[in-house]
Amino acid sequence: MTQPNQQPAWAALKEHRAATASETLSSLLTADSSRPKRYTASAAGIHLDFSRHLINDQTMSMFEQLLEQQDMKGWQAKMFGGEAINTSEGRAVLHVALRGSYKGTDTGIPAEVAETQQKFFAFAQAVRNGTIKSHSGEAFTDVINLGIGGSDLGPRLICHALADKVASPRVHFVANLDPTEMHNVLMGLNPATTLFILSSKSYSTMETQANAEAAVAWLTTHFKNSDIAAIKAAHFCAVSNNIKAISSWGIALERCFTLPEWVGGRFSLWSAVGLSIAIAIGEAKFREMLQGAHEMDEHFLNAPLNKNLPALLAILGVWYTNFHGAQTHGVISYSERLRYLPDYLQQLEMESNGKCVDKEGKPVTYATSPALFGGLGTTTQHSFFQMLHQGTQLVPLDIISVSAQDNIVAHEGDSRAADLLLFAQAQSDALAYGVDALPVSLREQWQAKPSYSHFPASRPNSRIHLDALTPHTLGALIAMYEHKTFLQGVIWHINSFDQWGVELGKVMFGSMK
Ligand SMILES: O=P(O)(O)OC[C@H]1O[C@H](O)[C@H](O)[C@@H](O)[C@@H]1O
């Protein structure tokens, strides 16, 4: 049980960093042209090229030692086996059990998962095929998920990403307390055919409760009657760990879907919190998503470090945060369908690892989670890429792309999808190698320009490429980031599974009301 900077491997990495300070990504490539081939790893339809990083084989083996010293294997066994590794709340962390990856011996856990899945899949199917009717006896055309944080961001990301696969009804999301968000979503919807999912693990989140009351008011105004109980019963369902509170609010038990205590909010999209996803894409595709995540779980447990996607992303993040002083991490998706990925990852990584005390409650003496930000390529190229290329801070990036032929609107004669992919590669090379990556004639022209047009380059980035954006690869992609987050928490020796930092503001609000 040690903070990482007490480990021999940490000291070795520190020395190694100083000894390699003059290396650049261009000099590393010149010294070893096999990097682009060797520094790659693939799993579950996701390919990682990590050749554009300020590392070499020695860096990798030092990190291998650090992982051993921080007992990566032991912590993996604890999490997958169901030990209560969220010590401040005394809870196991078993989201992996929701996708068939539980390694413990309690047969009640897979049985509970199967039972809940069966229940919410059946309900989702009945909403999809119109068997479940509204108060006025109609099929539902629209479903609104009312939830915030982990009860919003995952389902919102997935429903947007897989939108082309969506059959009727349409799925919408309302998270914020600002009534404008709900107003904008409700505009143009028919209350008579709109179903609400009240999604809140704790059922103590005031934003979701307030929005649920606003939804009731919208419905009862439409139905011009006071039979609120019947309207609620017909137009609401719920996902929560607090079924008692939900049913006393007026939702019948058969429409309440549970979420075990051992699923953390930001890891919960695989559970009944994914009801909106199941309504949007159906059970078969939901199961494909679970399978993709399961494959990533097995990969994380079994692949060696130099081929292990989550572990590589974790050590690269630690390398820049703790040895290069990086304070941020950027995620740029060259796919509109991944629009909500940075939002999702902000909660996943920053709420998990934005901690300043270790597992024993002692202050940490090293940096933990960087600030994560991101956006879409190519639009961000025309906004913040200036700073990425020529700014004074090191900002490590994940540059994510999807094969052009997978683009839903790609067709012959329209080169936009292919050009989008090319831009991902061009930016990755330009950031890493600067003008060195240009053909000779162009390079010479560029080098003749004044200093304001010079590129420092050596800006590290991971290229993450998906053969196709399917429920399977999306499940694997999210699981990859979950395990990256978990492993960074292991290295930093912090509890990645609580979030006490969000509580004070809530209490402060309560004391002012
Ligand atoms: O699902 P709920 O219990 O409503 O919680 C919603 C969210 O709010 C909390 O304040 C936490 O910061 C999040 O981790 C959580 O996902």
UniProtKB/TrEMBL annotation:
Protein keywords: Cytoplasm, Gluconeogenesis, Glycolysis, Isomerase
Known role: Catalyzes the reversible isomerization of glucose-6-phosphate to fructose-6-phosphate.
An annotated Gene Ontology molecular function: glucose-6-phosphate isomerase activity
Pathway: Carbohydrate degradation; glycolysis; D-glyceraldehyde 3-phosphate and glycerone phosphate from D-glucose: step 2/4; Carbohydrate biosynthesis; gluconeogenesis
NCBIfam families (UniProt xref): PRK00179.1
Top-level taxon in the UniProt lineage: Bacteria
GO CC term (a single one): cytosol
Localization (cell): Cytoplasm
EC numbers: 5.3.1.9
Signal peptide boundaries: none
Family statement drawn from the similarity comment of this UniProt entry: Belongs to the GPI family.
GO biological process: gluconeogenesis; glucose 6-phosphate metabolic process; glycolytic process
Xref: InterPro entries: G6P_Isomerase, Phosphoglucose_isomerase_CS, SIS_dom_sf, SIS_PGI_1, SIS_PGI_2
Keyword Isomerase: yes
Entry keyword Lipoprotein: no
Name of protein: Glucose-6-phosphate isomerase
Active site: E351 (proton donor), H382, K506
Organism, as annotated: Hydromonas duriensis
